[in-house]
C-alpha cells in the first residue's frame, strides 16, 4: 500500500549490524519532543485507527491526520517541530460510523489540486471525499465515485487501491488494482471525478497478482510528470507507463529481473520501494533483502538499452542476515538531510539508523538517534512511526505514536 506524499508509514522491519549495546551516536541528536495525545493509552490502536502525515492546510508542514473512533482528528504541524492540539474536524470515517481497517482503506491526498490534502475513504458504497478548506476545516464527506467500494466487490486482502496524479494536473486520481485489471478515476479541480473505468487488463487478481505476494505502487518512473505503475511480480519488476494523451497505461514491461517472487523476495520479509536514492533523474528500485540493501539504479534512457543498471548489493546492512525483521524493525526511504535524494531509514534495536543516498552510493549507516527503537519498547504492532517534514525545513522528521505520547525528533 502506498502512503501520503508527506509521510512514510513504518510498519515493520530491522535490527542492523550497528544495533549492539553501547554504540555511540554518529553526531549530536535533536531533542525528542513529546505531547500527550493520539497515543496508546488514549485508546489508539494500529489495527483500528489509521494515522498519517499530510499537509492539509497548505502551509508546507506535515500535519497529523488521525482516523479515530468518533471521526477524523487533525493536529497541525508547527514551525517549532511540535503539533497543535488535535481537533475533531470530521465526524465520519471513524469506527463509530462503521469504518473498519479490514474493509475500508482511508488515505489523505490532494484530489482537487489546490495544494491541500483531502480525506479519501473507500467505503461500502464507493469513494467518499472530504475536501480540505483554507481555514483548516473540511467539507462534509460526499460519495464521489460509485466504484472501488465494498459493495462493488473490492476487498482489502485482494485489491490494492491508491491515489496518485496520473495526468500531471496536480490532482491525485484513484487507481484500483481489481479482479480483471487496473481501474482509474480522475480527480478534478472542480471537486468531481471523471473517466472512471478500466485501463489495462494486467496486475489484477485474475492474472495471478496477490496482495500477499506482489506489491504494486505508483510513481513517476520516466520523469514526465505522470505516475506510472510499478508491479513486483513473480518474474521481477514490471513497469507500465501512463500516457496522459491516451489516458491509459502501456503493457507491462519487465524492466528488472529481480525483486520478484521467483528471486526469493517475500512481502513478509523483504520491504521494497521505488525512489530516487542515486541522484539520477528517474527513481531507482530498492529492496531490503537477506544480505542487505539491494538497488537497481536508473540510467539515462537510450532506445534499445536497459533502463536500469544491474542489481547490486549497496549496503551489507538492514537485511535479514544482520538481524532485521519486518515485525520488529521498520525500514523505509525518506529525505533526512534535505538534499533531494532519498536516504535509507531503519528503526533498529538501538534506535534510528540512516544511510544517506548519494551518486550511485550510500554513506553510512549511522545511528542518528537512540529513540524509537525496539529495545526502547517501540513495537510496530502497537506504536507506529512516520516520516514527514513537520517543521517545513525540507528534511523529513520522525514522528512516533507511543504508549503515552506523540513524539517528534527533527532531522
Automatic annotation (TrEMBL):
Keyword Signal in record: yes
InterPro entries according to UniProt: FG-GAP, Integrin_alpha_N
Q: Which residues form the signal peptide?
A: 1-31
> Which UniProt keywords are given for this protein, alphabetically ordered?
Signal
* Keyword Acetylation (UniProt): no
Among the Pfam families in the record, one is: FG-GAP_3
Record-given protein name: VCBS repeat-containing protein
